[in-house]
Amino acid sequence: ADYTPFSKLNNLCMVIEAKEGIDSYAYEAAARMAGLKIAAHLGKLGENLTPDNIEVFETKPLLEQASEYPELPKVAYVYMLQTQGLLHDTYVYGVDAKKIVPTILYPTEVMDGAILSGNCVSACDKNTSYHHLNNPIIKNLYKQHGKEINFMGIIITNENVYLADKERSSDWTAKFTKYLGLDGVVISQEGFGNPDTDLIMNCKKVEAQGIKTVIVTDEYAGRDGSSQSLADADVAANAVITGGNANEMIILPPMEKIIGMLDYTDTVAGGFDGALRPDGSIEAELQIITGATNELGFNKLSAKMY
Fold this sequence. Notes:
Structural class: alpha/beta
Largest sheet: 6 strands, mixed
Strand content: 15-25%
Protein name: Beta-aspartyl-peptidase
InterPro entries: Gly_reductase_pB_sua/b
Radius of gyration: 20 Å
Distance between the termini: 28 Å
Oligomer: single chain
Helix content: 25-40%
GO molecular function: oxidoreductase activity, acting on X-H and Y-H to form an X-Y bond, with a disulfide as acceptor
Pfam family, one: Gly_reductase
Number of strands: 11
Shape: globular
Organism: Hirondellea gigas
């Protein structure tokens, strides 16, 4: 339970069974929209309730924000969004993020629901909509705002599969960091493997502008932790925060009650033939658990260099 933040929440779980012969894309869209409708209904139920506490966050228009704390380093957040197709998509104001070019958002727009998740494969490092709404990188940058940094805002970018798309998006991202006159950037990845290239491209090109970067990722270092952690690397990536090794093996004890189904345990990312044991326990890689190595830092795993 400690591997995922969702074990500490009250969760409403949908169990959806697809009609025989339904197209995978239609199945995904129906499940996603069903979840949104339920979330909207629950949100309306709490619309007029008095909150237990209120926090205030504000980022001002660009020139006004830049001049508010002229003595502090100007820092922005490069927010990489998973955009690789079925079960690997993200939506920005309802638009499939595969079809966007990098752009600038107020951090408060993310808190208001501007970014919506449509992905789940290799669940350990995919951002659910809950992660986006409660992004700890944004909250922590706000905590330092006006004290150690001048938090200038967010640059969102995608992680498309083709090289030309990666080059275009990383070029735009680096251009924005220069345009905003930044001194430093935090870059968070979503996913692994193919997006490692996007991460390193963003890092290299931003650093080439003379802007310091910190990247936030996770690792696929093999079950014994001895393999190369990322599929790409560069000397410019010299400040790295990790959410843990997704290949680490774990054993989940049998449960008295299961909500949903176990049909896919052996084939879901992180599982393997025999992962579901006869006694009902599951032996699998950590990547099978939603949010376990989350690359926004919304988890309990990391690593330190000694």
